[in-house]
């Protein structure tokens, strides 16, 4: 549990220099935890590049440094994905520290600019995915596998341990999957299916292997618009279970869109923010 001890610093503009990027610090939030550690959140906005539903950003790295040489690094930013932002051109830089950061910081970082398209290989559109059950729908790099799980088939065989095991072995062998992770994924899916009493006609379930973290998005296209009413992602190391749920039954003309980071669909931008004061007046 944490409580806010200081909210909302309005700052002057700070520019990001290098590779035509312009970053503005919009505000700062300082939180304190019950253990008296501090969470410093620097909310930034990038203005030099267009950002929308097809052109996205995510933070790759950031480090704060005092004039004395003392450094502060982001502890964990895996949560920060392309689709995690309310305002698509904003991103937070968050430092976790045991004491207040009382001296101004110079912050260096790197942003990934992602512009997927069919032409640069960043987009793959899968037609009629329900007809591709238990096979890998991504036919690109071997490091990425996206399996449309045949939910009904696994539900049907679950009561018979031998048939259930045989089906798992068959899918693993056919697609050259990590058996331990796939089995874990299926067991979790079966548990959720029973707990929430979902109709298999109203949701997709995908098993994903992506050891280099290149799959940036998995969406459903309904009448050429991205849509789903629920779902989530469970991660198991480099594997994950992804679900997409809908209020209506899935139709044959629906499509799946995969967004993939390729050499041509990404551009990494470095930035420097100078004299960022988290407490008190800036120098």
Structural class: mainly beta
Mean pLDDT: 86
- The ordered H/E elements are EEEEEEEEEHHHEEEEEEE
Q: Could you say how many structural domains there are in total?
A: 2
Give the biggest beta sheet.
4 strands, antiparallel
Quaternary structure state of the chains depicted = single chain
Topology:
Layout: E1 2-7, E2 23-33, E3 38-46, E4 56-65, E5 71-73, E6 90-97, E7 105-114, E8 123-127, E9 144-148, H1 151-157, H2 161-175, H3 179-196, E10 203-210, E11 215-222, E12 225-226, E13 230-236, E14 239-245, E15 255-260, E16 266-276
Antiparallel strand pairs: 1-2, 2-3, 3-6, 4-5, 4-7, 7-16, 8-15, 9-10, 10-14, 11-12, 11-15, 13-14
Description:
- This protein is mainly beta.
- It folds into two domains: 125 residues, Sandwich (Immunoglobulin-like); 138 residues, no CATH class.
- Helix content is 14%, strand content 41%.
- It is built from three helices and 16 strands.
- The chain is elongated and about 65 Å long.
Concise structural overview:
The protein is mostly beta strands. The chain has helices at 151-157, 161-175, 179-196; strands at 2-7, 23-33, 38-46, 56-65, 71-73, 90-97, 105-114, 123-127, 144-148, 203-210, 215-222, 225-226, 230-236, 239-245, 255-260, 266-276.
Task: Provide keyphrases for this structure.
283 residues; Immunoglobulin-like; four-stranded antiparallel sheet; 16 strands; 3 helices; disordered N terminus
């Amino acid at each position: 549990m944490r409580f806010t001890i200081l909210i909302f610093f309005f700052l002057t503009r700070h520019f990001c220099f290098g590779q035509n990027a312009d970053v503005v610090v919009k505000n700062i939030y300082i939180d304190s935890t019950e253990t008296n550690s501090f969470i410093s959140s620097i909310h930034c906005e990038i203005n030099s590049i267009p950002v929308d539903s097809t052109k996205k950003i995510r933070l790759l790295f950031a480090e704060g440094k005092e004039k004395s040489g003392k450094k502060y690094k982001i502890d964990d930013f895996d949560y920060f994905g392309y689709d995690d932002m309310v305002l698509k051109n904003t991103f937070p830089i968050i430092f976790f520290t045991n004491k207040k950061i009382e001296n101004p910081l110079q912050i260096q970082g790197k942003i990934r600019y992602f512009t997927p398209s069919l032409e640069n290989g960043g987009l793959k559109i899968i037609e009629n995915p329900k007809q591709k059950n238990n096979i890998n729908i991504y036919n690109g790099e071997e490091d990425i596998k996206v399996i449309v799980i045949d939910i009904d088939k696994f539900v049907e065989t679950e009561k018979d341990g031998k048939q259930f095991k045989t089906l798992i072995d068959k899918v693993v062998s056919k697609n050259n999957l990590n058996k331990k992770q796939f089995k874990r994924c299926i067991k979790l899916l079966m548990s959720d299916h029973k707990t929430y009493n979902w109709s298999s006609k109203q949701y997709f379930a995908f098993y994903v292997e992506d050891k280099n973290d290149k799959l940036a998005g998995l969406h459903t296209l309904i009448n050429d618009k991205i849509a789903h009413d629920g779902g989530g992602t469970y991660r198991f190391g480099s594997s994950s279970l992804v679900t997409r749920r809908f209020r209506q039954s899935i139709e044959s003309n629906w499509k799946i869109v995969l967004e993939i980071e390729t050499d041509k669909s990404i551009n990494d931008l470095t930035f420097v923010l100078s004299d960022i004061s988290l407490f008190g007046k800036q120098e």
